[in-house]
Task: inverse folding
């Protein structure tokens, strides 16, 4: 019988996603033996690409946050630098264009934490003769920036209450409020509020329920520092992480499902694969949703504490994804496409209306985010073509009526609506130019990643599941000794940057378990 | 709370934490796991299933239609293929076969799926084995519902022109059946079907049953057939112009030489590139013809070390066979789908050694090329090699 696995690993990571790979790298760097089990034949989870008609097509990445320029790296670039991973980052030229009926604004990102440019862009778009709107925007962004800096610092060095109040006052004072509540205090005109709401879809919660802490983090990072994409798509990032991990001795096996996590007397004992191999370990990092892990993977089920089930049942599942990716047979300039990233509200921006629309079962999506890859990445597709994606992030329950028989009709209908909407906005009939098309639905995501209900956003960021509360309660939520979770459902929530952060945090949790066990043995 | 527009409340953190604690306490510990989306994903992509051979029947003297059944067959799209994995002696091989039955036949209480197996050009040794040995009630491991040679209502014209030769008719028959059944919403399907003699026309009986207001078939015979009153010669620009609607999407399926010829003809009659779709047909059986293939490789046999998990095994790899064939020959399990270098299912990592990848069949992702990942079905060894494969 040929040997596939070692007798025991220091840690097994279930899922070779961005998050799982970040965990593996963190542990491998400390010299631990790690096995990564990935169901697909590619690393990265959703951070990957499709192959169609001989062309590689980005599957999901819009823009990476927390990268920053090479000489002033932000958190995620710093992590890659530490690991010796050299990704060919391309700066996205602008932040975004926001469009709603009667308004079309291009907002540029600032640089190195300077918000002057985006503030001017937004103020000028609505008219700001006395400069008051510009002033308020700068105040808002400063507030966001302070919260952002606090979050970054506090996640590394927790501090005492006194220091919190003194050094992290903005963070503390806004912790109990939703993004909408804080924004309302500035008394911006509606159009400004609409422009400031554009990024809500990146965190998947209506602004009246989204913790300001998350909003601030998002806005400060994107608008103050800009964003980046890898030249060879998110697969470049995933692949380089996997390659570095293997260089560091991590064993990564593709095409393997982890079927069971064996727990005995409250402690992890190992993992059983779908091929019935039992692999021993005392520590497991799981990038699968806890909903699946606690209800179906842990063996025996009696080892799952009731508190664990209660915690996941109390939380809301984050958004799933519906994306139409087109390879168009023209250079983007001949198709009236001017911007890398566009957020388009088909009707007058109404957060509540959009949130309800994203739960609907047979209505066109009212809020779309589009990306034209070639604008940031000129060689993304062959000359005379361009890659254009149109995305909505619906609520998973809205897709639970799907069946084998109605699936294609449903996905084609939604895709048609979305292409029609963009064609109308651009003044170009995109249907005349489609060379290749990929439609990604919650079913697609479930197929490739086993994500619960095709969700890609973890547990929804909301006031009842506040990031600050998550941080404060995190130690109590290691319900099974030796088991940690990484992925969008980790503490930092969704996004590729946060996924990497979550992976590192999961590794840290495992190191804490290890230290505890070592201490107990002595 | 509101003082000069700024918040003075410092109790927020504790408040939201308390709220979350209470929510967790009040929650239920019932198993609420329910994923209908996953169930659909599994139904459409169940991975490997077992098919039972229900029936064999002749279509021409050297081709048979194989009808398979199973409890559940994925609801595939017309134009897709399945792969059959078989053990032949010491070898474990997979081969793709386009499905000639319609998707709707895979639904219901007695799901079936059909393929055509032809003796001659193509995957000869596997097809020969099937034609000689397969009998009713035999079981086969299969992956059903693969490939992109399918109609897409958002991308394609409402008029479809299929140009086929030989067993290329299979996927088009599936489309024709789907159109007749009302499942494919198109205005017209015109099939230009090239064969040599009337006796060569594969699936003629089945095709005739599909002819209706939306489906038209034109047989074009290139051989010397004195009694033939239909179209003669090859399907060229003039023939296409005669039968094709002005705006149409072309689905082309047949042997490689046909593709090269048609590319030029379609260009001549100004069919836009985006309106032409070619089915993949596998690797040339004579790689010496491939651009840049080193002719001195002929006859060479290299050592290929295959790493699987923590184990290694060293096998022979003939320089004129792709890596996947070397592995299949000796029973090393390697998953393949398109066998044309496109889909990436057979992706492996090269750890040592040099290789040749056919430029026409290099469908690899950009970053994969930088790190020596290859699609093993379109990669040939040019030295001893070491590769890592999936478990």
Result:
């Amino acid at each position: 019988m040929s040997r596939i696995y070692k007798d025991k690993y220091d840690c097994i990571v279930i899922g070779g996603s961005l998050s799982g790979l970040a965990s593996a790298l963190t542990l491998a760097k400390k010299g631990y033996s790690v096995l990564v089990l990935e169901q697909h034949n590619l690393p990265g989870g959703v951070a990957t690409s499709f192959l169609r008609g001989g062309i590689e097509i980005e599957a999901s990445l819009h823009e990476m946050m927390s990268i920053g320029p090479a000489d002033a790296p932000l958190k995620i670039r710093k992590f890659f630098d530490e690991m010796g991973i050299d990704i060919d980052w391309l700066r996205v030229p602008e932040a975004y264009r926001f469009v709603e009926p009667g308004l079309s604004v291009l907002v540029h990102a600032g640089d190195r934490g300077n918000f002057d440019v985006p503030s001017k862009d937004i103020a000028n778009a609505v008219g700001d003769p006395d400069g008051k709107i510009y002033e308020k925007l700068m105040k808002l962004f400063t507030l966001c920036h302070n919260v952002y800096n606090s979050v970054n610092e506090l996640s590394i060095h927790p501090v005492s209450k006194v220091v919190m109040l003194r050094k992290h006052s903005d963070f503390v004072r806004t912790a109990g409020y939703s993004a909408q509540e804080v924004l309302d205090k500035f008394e911006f005109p509606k159009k400004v509020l609409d422009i400031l709401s554009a990024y809500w879809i990146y965190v998947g919660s209506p602004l009246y329920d989204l913790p300001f802490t998350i909003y601030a983090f998002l806005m400060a990072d994107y608008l103050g520092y800009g964003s980046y994409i890898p030249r060879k798509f998110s697969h470049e990032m995933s692949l380089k992480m996997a390659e570095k991990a293997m260089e560091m001795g991590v064993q990564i096996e593709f095409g393997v499902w982890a079927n069971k996590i064996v727990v005995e007397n409250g402690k992890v004992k190992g993992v059983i694969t779908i091929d019935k191999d039992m692999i021993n370990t005392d520590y497991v990092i799981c990038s699968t949703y806890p909903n699946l892990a606690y209800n179906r993977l842990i063996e025996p089920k009696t080892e799952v504490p009731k508190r664990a089930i209660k915690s996941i049942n109390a939380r809301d599942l984050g958004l799933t994804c519906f994306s139409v990716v087109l390879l168009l047979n023209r250079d983007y300039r001949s198709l009236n496409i001017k911007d890398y990233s566009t957020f388009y509200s088909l009707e007058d921006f109404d957060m509540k209306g959009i949130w309800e629309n994203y739960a609907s079962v047979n209505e066109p999506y009212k809020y779309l985010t589009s990306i034209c890859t070639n604008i940031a990445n000129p060689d993304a597709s062959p000359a005379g073509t361009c890659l254009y994606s149109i995305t909505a992030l619906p609520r998973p329950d809205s897709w639970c009526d799907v069946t084998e028989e109605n699936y294609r009709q449903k996905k084609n209908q939604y895709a048609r609506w979305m292409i029609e909407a963009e064609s109308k906005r651009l003044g170009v009939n995109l249907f005349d130019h489609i060379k290749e098309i990929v439609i990604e639905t919650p079913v697609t995501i479930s197929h490739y990643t086993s994500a619960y209900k095709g969700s890609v956003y973890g547990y929804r960021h909301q006031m009842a599941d506040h990031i600050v509360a998550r941080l404060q309660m995190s130690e109590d939520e290691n319900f099974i000794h030796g088991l940690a979770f990484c992925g969008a459902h980790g503490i930092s929530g969704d996004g590729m940057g946060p996924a990497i952060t979550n992976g590192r945090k999961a590794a840290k949790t495992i190191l804490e378990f290890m230290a505890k066990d070592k201490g107990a043995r002595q | 709370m509101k003082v000069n527009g700024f918040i003075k409340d410092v109790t927020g953190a504790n408040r939201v934490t308390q709220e979350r604690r209470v929510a967790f306490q009040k929650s239920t510990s019932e198993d609420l796991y329910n994923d209908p989306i996953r169930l659909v994903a599994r139904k459409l992509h169940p991975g490997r299933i077992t098919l039972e051979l229900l029936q064999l029947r002749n279509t021409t003297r050297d081709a048979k239609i194989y009808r398979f059944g199973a409890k559940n067959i994925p609801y595939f799209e017309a134009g897709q293929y399945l792969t059959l994995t078989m053990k032949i002696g010491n070898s474990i091989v997979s081969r793709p076969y386009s499905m000639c039955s319609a998707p709707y036949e895979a639904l219901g209480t007695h799901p079936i799926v059909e393929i055509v197996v032809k003796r001659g050009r193509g995957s000869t040794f596997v097809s020969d084995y099937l034609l000689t040995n397969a009998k009713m009630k035999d079981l086969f491991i299969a992956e059903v519902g693969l490939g992109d040679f399918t109609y897409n209502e958002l991308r394609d014209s409402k008029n479809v022109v299929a140009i086929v030769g030989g067993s290329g008719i299979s996927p088009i028959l599936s489309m024709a059946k789907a159109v007749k059944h009302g499942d494919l919403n198109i205005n017209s399907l015109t099939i230009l079907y090239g064969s040599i003699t009337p006796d060569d026309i594969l699936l003629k009986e089945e095709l005739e049953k599909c002819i209706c207001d939306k489906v038209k078939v034109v047989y074009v015979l290139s051989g010397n057939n004195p009694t033939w009153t239909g179209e003669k010669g090859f399907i060229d620009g003039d023939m296409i112009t005669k039968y094709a609607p002005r705006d149409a999407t072309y689905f082309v399926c047949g042997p490689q030489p046909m593709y090269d010829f048609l590319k030029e003809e379609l260009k001549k009659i100004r069919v836009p590139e985006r309106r032409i779709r070619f089915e993949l047909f596998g690797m040339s059986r004579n790689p010496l013809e491939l651009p840049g293939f080193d002719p001195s490789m002929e006859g060479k046999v290299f050592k290929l070390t295959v790493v699987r998990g923590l184990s290694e095994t060293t096998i022979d790899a003939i320089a004129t066979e792709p890596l996947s064939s070397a592995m299949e020959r000796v029973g090393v399990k390697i998953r393949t789908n398109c066998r044309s270098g496109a889909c990436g299912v057979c992706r492996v990592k090269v750890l040592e050694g040099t290789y040749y990848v056919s430029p026409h069949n290099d469908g690899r992702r950009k970053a994969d090329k930088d790190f020596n990942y290859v699609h093993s079905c379109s990669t040939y060894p040019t030295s001893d090699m070491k590769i890592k494969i999936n478990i």
User: Anything to note?
Assistant: The first strand of chain B starts at residue 2 and ends at 3. The mean pLDDT of chain B is 94.
